[in-house]
Structures are given as C-alpha cells and as structure tokens.
Amino acid sequence: MPDDPDHHAREALRLLGPDPQNWVPDRPGIDHNVVIVGAGQSGCAFAFALRRAGIGRVTVIDQAEGEDDAEIWRNVARMTVLRTPKILPGPENGVAAFGFQAWYEARYGREAYAAFERAPREAWADYLDWYRRFLAIPVRYRTRLARIEPAAGHFRLHLEAAGEARVETARKIILATGFDGGGGAYIPPVLTDGLPRRFYAHTQEAIDFAALRGRRVAVIGGAASAFDAAATALEAGAASVDLFARRPALASVPVARVRGYPGAYDNYPDLPDPVRWQQAVRFRRAGSTAPPDAIERVLRHTNFRLHLAAPWRAARAVAGAVRAEAADGAFDFDFVIAGTGYFADPAARPETADFADQIMRWRDRFTPPADEQDDFLGAHPYLGRGEEYLEKSPGAAPFLNDIHVHNPAGFVSFGVPVGDVPSMKRGLPAVTRRISRDLFFADFTAHQRRLASDVAPEFSESLYAAAVWPRPG
Questions:
Q1: Distance CA 163, CA 141 (A)
Q2: For residues 402 and 388, what is the distance between their CA atoms, to the nearest angstrom?
Q3: What is the DSSP letter of 367?
Q4: To the nearest whole percent, how much of the chain has pLDDT over 70?
Q5: Would the N or C end of the chain have less CB density within 10 A of its end CB?
Q6: Fold of the 187-251+287-340 domain
Q7: Which CATH superfamily includes the segment(s) 7-182+343-446?
Q8: What count of other Cβ atoms lies within 10 Å of the Cβ of residue 422?
C-alpha cells in the first residue's frame, strides 16, 4: 500500500478536472440555489453531485452541534455491520476512487476487504468522515430548518442558527433528513399514554446504555433496530433484556430482494401504481427482517428472552418501575426501548406542516383493492421522478415541485428506504438531473440569450490563406 492512502483518490480528482463554473444566473434577493437539509451520507453526496453539475450557491445545513453529533453511524446506529452488501454503490457518484471499497483497500488492503460481506459500521462512519473532508463539503452545523415559507418563485427558509432565528431564501430544497424526516418516530400509545417519558426511548434517540447496567430492560419490536438495541443493552451489562414481538414468528423472508436486479431497480419508479402498491403491501405483510447476525448477537447472552405473539396491552409506572401487561403475561422493567419504526406524514414535520394538506399522498392518487387497503402506506407522499412533492390539486401549489424528498417517505414511490445506501445509485443522479433541468428552464430566457450570443473567432483567415487553391496569380 502506498504511504499516501489517498493517492488514487487524488489522482481521480485530478483526472476529473476542475469543477464546472456555476451556470445558474443570480436572482436578486436569492441567497441559495439549493439548500440541502441534512449533512449525512446523502446530503454530502448531493453537495458533490450538484457541484459537478455546475450548480453553485449550494449550502448544506444540519441541526447537530457538530460533525460528531451529526453522524448517526456513531450515535444512533448500533449494528456491528451494515445491513446492505458492500458491493452496492454509495455516495461516490460514479467515481470508483471515491467509493468505500477504494477507501478501505487503500488503508487495509484487498484481502481485508475481501474478508467481509458487509461493511463494518465503524469503518463506514470513518469513510463518510473522509468523504466529506476529502471532497471539501462545507456543512453549517447548529442550523435547524424550522419552517418552509413559499414565496414568489422561491422559498423563505426560517432557520434557527446557533440559537438565533434568521431567514434565508432558496430556489430548491433537498430534504435529506433521515429516517424520521418524512414524519417521525412511531412510539406506540401503550407507552406514550401509560408511562412518564423518563421510562422509555425510541431507538432513534441517543440512549445512555451505560445507565442501563444492572437494569431490567424491555424492547418492543422485532426488526433490526430492536435487536440492535437489545444487544447493545446486554453488552452494556443490563441485568436482563426481554424483546416483545407482535408476530408469532420473527420475519425471515426478505421480499425486497426480488426487485433488486438492475431491470427492476432502474425502472421501478416507472412501474404502474398498482404494482408499486402491491410491492409495498407485500413488504408490510412479510415484515422487516432482522439479519441473522443481529439475532445471533443477542442469543449469545443467557439473560435474553424472546416473547413472540406478545404485543403489549398496557403499561404503567409502579413503585419507580414499569409494570407491563403483555399478551403472554405481566412483567416488571426498569426501562423500555421502542424499536417500532417510523411513520410518514408531512403534517407532523414543522418545516412542511403549513402546506401538508396540499401534498399529494398515495391515498389521493391510488385506490387499492379492498384486500390491499393500508392506511400507513396511504399516508406516504406520492413523489415525482425527481423525488419531488406533487400537488394534490393541480395548479394550487406549484412550489411543491421544488422540494425534493430524499428520505424514507419515498418508500412506496421508489421501493427502497430512500436515503439509505440502496437508494443512492438511482436517487442521486435523478434528483441532480431534475434540479439542473428545473433551474435551467426556469431561466430559459437568460440561457437563450447566452446560447445566441456572439462568439469570438479563434483564428482569422490568414491562418490558412497560403494553402487555399488555386493560389493567387
């Protein structure tokens, strides 16, 4: 391995050549052409893609205190390895030297990379740190988007920046806001209605697992995040961990794999609505599968117990603890972790709540057969090809086309958890192309003038005059 592990990446950057100049005409009163909300793997990848597309005046904001707090791979993700195969394209935007494999092999060698099927979580986090720094992606931390206010041909963005309110303007927005960015974390009413907040947390929260040492912990949910939380609690020294699943058996059929081949993946957004809906319903009914290694991780501990067909019916605080009534009995715990997933609802997001009723949902666009009814899926936004919101009533809210939703709210429309690694190969170029097209044609008059403008000749007739036949007299 070379002394400089970034040698090949630097060479690839050199061969790419300089970034194109910004071709988007300035507009008076507009601060940004594009605001990317979220500085995770998707947000930084979009910043690089837009730069290479010649779209300037792009800013990336994140509400985290700093880069360490912004990285879910270090403070919320609890798996030991990623769920997705290592061979999937990621944020490299088609430049192999900027991908995870190139980065890892440059540091640890080809044999080390060949030894695993899925990337170690900590290595993936290190890679994303490198990606942001190597490609010089600037991020404005401590900046939260509180509200999107549509204006004439742009948006007024109400921000909380380092504790101060401010307003900035933008023409386009990318919501690269992670798993809860399309609505929120779902916590079942049995917890929210029955217990004080100090007794439970959702897996998306930064849980103090060290404080659970010697404690009795309950985990609700049967998917990957629930098992990750259970394992982390056990490894932190919890006295016991009980995991409660609603199903009589753990979901074990990864039905999403049937659409993972290039033909289906590349063309999925163009499938008829009934097909996309049926695929989403099939996934919901099969259940989200926890990978075998996540299950094996908890099975190493003798103080782990699995409860099947055991939804909670009630929970209350009793003598400083949680008394739970599940389908299989009554139990006492010191703390409860909800690994119960997320919901999609733009009305639940403060940034989009003002105009949420104008956003087209799947329930507005498609009426499923009686045996495929699903209110949860129906609440998802029906997104356009560039992952943009669409109007429920044509002509009533044209500004929605300028908000691109690169988070899991796009699941029904695109068949993958948008924002995760499997969505990058398709989503990054699709959104970038749509933003480029929209900005170009929004200023087409200016571009027409530019395309029709005079071009100075590179040479005069004297360059070739001596070779013209017949030669002068």
A1: 11
A2: 7
A3: -
A4: 99
A5: C
A6: FAD/NAD(P)-binding domain (3.50.50)
A7: FAD/NAD(P)-binding domain (3.50.50.60)
A8: 22
Pull the structure tokens for residue 435.
């933003």
Q: Is the pLDDT of residue 2 over 60?
A: no
**What separation in angstroms does the CA of 285 have from each of 228, 229, 255, 321, 366?**
22, 23, 10, 34, 19
Question: Does the pLDDT at position 70 exceed 80?
Answer: no
Q: The tokens of 422 are what?
A: 């499997």
Give CA angle at 391 (385, 397), nearest 5°.
125
Residue spans of alpha helices (H) in 6-40: 7-16
121 and 82 Cβ atoms separated by less than 8 Å = yes
**Both tokens of residue 471?**
């030669």
Look at residue 408 in the predicted model and tell me its pLDDT: 94
The length of the chain in residues reads 473
Q: Count Cβ atoms below 10 Å from residue 102 Cβ, excluding itself.
A: 20
Token digits for 94?
A: 């088609």
Statement: the pTM of the whole predicted model exceeds 0.85: yes
Query: Position 173: which residue type?
Result: I
* Per-domain residue ranges of the chain: 7-182+343-446, 187-251+287-340
